[in-house]
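Re: the request from the purification team.
They wanted to know what the chain is likely to look like in 3D before they choose a buffer screen. I agreed to run a prediction and write the result into the notebook, where they can find it.
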Amino acid sequence: MKKIRNLLIAVISIELAVSCYFAAVSMSRPNPPTVDMQRLDPITSADLEEFRVRVQEGREGAWRELAEAFLGNGYYVAAEQCFRQAAELDPTDFQARYGRGFCLERIGQTSTAIQVLKATVQDANPELATTCWYQIGRCYLRVENEVEAEKAFRKISEFQPAGYNLAKLLIRSNRAEEAIRIVEQQLADIPNSLKLIQLRMHAAEALGDDDLVAILRDMEDRSQYQVILEYGQSFISMFAARQGLAALLSKALRLKTEGTLIERQKALEPALRVIRSNNLWQFRSVLIAAAQVEVGLGNLKVGNELLAEIEQHTQGGVDVLDLQAQVAESEGDYESAYKLRLRVASMKPTSEIYLTLSETKVGINDSIRRQHQAMSNLRAAIEAWQYNQITAAEQALQRCEKTLGENELFLFYDGEIKRALGHRDEALKAYEKCLSVNPDHGRSLVRKQQLLKSSISSTREGEQP
C-alpha cells in the first residue's frame, strides 16, 4: 500500500512539474498583438485569427506568418512587432529582418528602419542586399539626406531603379554629365522608357541643349512606363493574396489566363458568397468576372442577373455595356448589341471595338461598314504610335486613308508619323489640312508652329556670313 502511495505521489509530482514547465513557457512567451479587424471580411478575419492561434501554440515560423498576414492587410505596427519577434527567435531569418525594416519605414520610423536594413545587408544574399540598399536610399531621400542616399544608390547603381534615382540626384546637384552616362546605359536596355526619357530630358535642360530637349519631349509622347520605382505595394499585395478573400480573388484572377471557364466559375463562387453576405460592393470586379464566365458558358439568365446586380449596387461602365452587348448578341438581338457597342466605341474607342462593329450582323450599309473598318485601322495606328511602333502605325494609317482622308484625327496622326519619320514638309501639310478641317485643333496648331520655328532656325544656320 505504501509503495502504491509513493508511486502515485511520484506520478503527481511529475505531472505538476511538467504542467509548471509548460505554464512557465507559456507565460514567458509574448502574446501576439491584437488589431481591429472590423473592416475586414469574415474569411480574412478568421484566417488572421488562425495565425494568432498558431503563434500562441508556439508553432515554428508562426510569428513570421502572422507578421506577413498583418502586413498584407495594412496593419503595419502589428506586423513590425511580429517581424521583430520572428527575427529574435531566428536571427538567420533575413526576410523577417527585412520585413521589419519595411514596416518601420511605412510607419514613419525612418532612422530605425535604416539601422535595421543596414544590419540585414551584412548577412543577406545578393538579391535581398540589393533590395535593402534600395530601401535605405529611399529612406535617406525621405529625410532629405541626399549625400547618404547617393552612397546607397551607388552601391547598386546597376539596379535600374537605383541607377535612376542616382542620376536624378546627380542632375539635381549640377552633375548632369555623369548622370547622362548612367541614363544612356539604361536607355540602351529599355529605349522606350518614359521615366528614363524624362530624366535624359532634364539632363539636357540642365546643360542648355534645347534641340535635344525638343527631340526628347517628342519621344516622351510615345514612351511607356517601364522602370518600377516603387514596388512596396506589390510587396504588400503578395502577402495579402495568401489569405482570406484576397486569396480567393487571386486564384480566380490566375485562372483567367490559366484555367477553364468551369474552373473560374468554381473559384469565384465562394468569393461571391462572401461579397454578397457582407455587402462588399467595392469588389465590383468579381461580379464582372463572374458575369463574363456565365456569359461565356452560355448561362445568359445568370449573366443578366449578375449584370442587374452590378448596376443595382455599383456604377455601370464600358465593361458592363460590353457584357450586355455579348448577352444581346447571344440571344439573337443583334440590333441592341450593335447599339450598345456604338456606346462603347464613343466612350472607349479601340481598334478591337470598331472591328467588332464592322462585323455586325445588323443590316448596315456598306458605307457605314467601311467607316467602322477604317476607324479600326485608325485606332490601330494610334495604338502603335503610342508604343513607338512608327512603321506599324504608318501601315495602319495607309489602310484607312481612302475612307478617312478628311478626318481631323487621321490628319493629325498622319502629321505625327511623317514628322517622326523626318518628312517635315509633308508633316506640315498634314497639320495645315487638319487645321482647315478644324481651325481649333490645338495639337495641330502647336505642331505647325514648332515646325515653322525649326524651319526658320535651320534657314538662319545655313546662311553664309
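For the purification team: Residues 183 and 334 are 53 Å apart (CA to CA).
Please add any questions underneath this entry.
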